[in-house]
Amino acid sequence: MNFKGEKCYYCGEPSTSEEHLPPQQMFKWFQDNNITINYLTAPSCAEHNTKKSFFDEVIVKSMLIPLEKHDIILNDDVKNALDIIRPYHYKVKNKVSEKTLYRQNDVDYKLTILDPSVDLNCWIKQLSAGLLWYKTKEYDDSNKYDNSEVFERNSYSVNRTPQDLSVFEVEYKKKLEFKRLIKNSDWTIGWIPKDNPYPETLYTFYYSFLGKNIFIKHRFYQQYTFYNEIELSEKTLKDIKK
Predict the structure, then answer these.
(1) How far apart (Å, rounded) are the C-alpha atoms in residues 128 and 226?
(2) In whole angstroms, what is the distance from residue 107 CA to residue 74 CA?
(3) Are 117 and 61 in contact (CB under 8 A)?
(4) C-alpha pair distances (Å), 120 with each of 5, 126, 188
(5) What's phi and psi for 239, nearest 5 deg?
(6) Exposed site from 137, 153, 203, 209, fewest CB < 10 Å?
(7) Cβ count within 10 A of residue 241
(8) How far apart are CA 104 and CA 203, in angstroms?
(9) Which of 231, 216, 211, 208 is nearest to 142 (CA)?
(10) What is the 3-state secondary structure (H, E, C) of the chain?
(11) What phi and psi, each to the nearest 5 degrees, are found at residue 31?
(12) For the CA atoms of 157, 158, 163, 167, what is the dihedral angle to 10 degrees?
């Protein structure tokens, strides 16, 4: 798609390329396996596309790597993703590490830690912003994505080592409050076109409204769920609800 003259989906700067939603890293390996990908795209500046491509790779692999080390029942597509990326783990080893959270019965229970230079929360915010652009086809500087909140359902301390145990208590309390907010939410499947054939077991998203805020629920590889709460302008809300 030609986005010449458009504004970047995230910051409003002139676009220089197109951002794929979600990033191509999640699906590019399947093109040799008869899965045709019709990517959703949004106009992007270099800062929010090209410069983050390595972080796309790091984050995708950081999600997949732990799955092969735990007794988890995985869909065939997720198993395939694991098989395909396994030889390339070395590419991100300086950005993804494991820390032993505790040891019990001679078993180490580990936490996957991203290098502080890899901002997972920002990555989620950018994905949400791109999806909202795709729906409205317009950049609105009233939507302050940087100020939005990201919550993950299952893990803690995205960029911190587990030695700082106070972080767990703070995040746990935040999660309890967040669960209260979304407990009775009415989730709607996202606006990915029906003719977009990539497997929902690899990625899908849902959304719900609470006042002027939208909650976007991102689901990766059947295991990881991230929620992004964003305050939107009245115009953007109206366009999404059409």
Answers:
(1) 11
(2) 22
(3) no
(4) 29, 10, 24
(5) -65, -35
(6) 137
(7) 8
(8) 33
(9) 231
(10) CCCCCCECCCCCCECCEEEEECCHHHCHHHHHHCCCCCCEEEEECHHHCHHHHHHHHHHHHHHHHHHHHCCCCCCHHHHHHHHHHHHHHHHHCCCEEEEEEEEECCEEEEEEEECCCCCHHHHHHHHHHHHHHHHHCCCCCCCCHHHCEEEECCCCCCCCCCCCCHHHHHHHHHHHHHHHHHCCCCCEECCCCCCCCCCCCCEEEEEEEECCEEEEEEEECCCEEEEEEEECCHHHHHHHHC
(11) -65, -20
(12) -20
Name the pTM for this structure. 0.85
Chain length of the chain: 242
* Cα 113 → chain centroid: 16
Lookup result for tokens 């652009």: 133
pLDDT digits (tens, 9 = 90+) for 181-190: 677 678 999 9
Sign of the C-alpha dihedral computed for residues 73, 198, 153 and 69 taken in this order:
positive
The domain segmentation of the chain, as residue ranges, is: 17-241
| Cβ within 8 Å of residue 158, ≥6 positions away | 114, 120, 121, 152
Q: How far apart are CA 181 and CA 188, in angstroms?
A: 16
Tokens 């220089």 identify what position? 16
Spatial distance between the Cα atoms of 11 and 76, rounded to a whole number of angstroms: 37
CA distance 201 to 192: 14
Nearest to 127 by CA among 179, 211, 63: 63
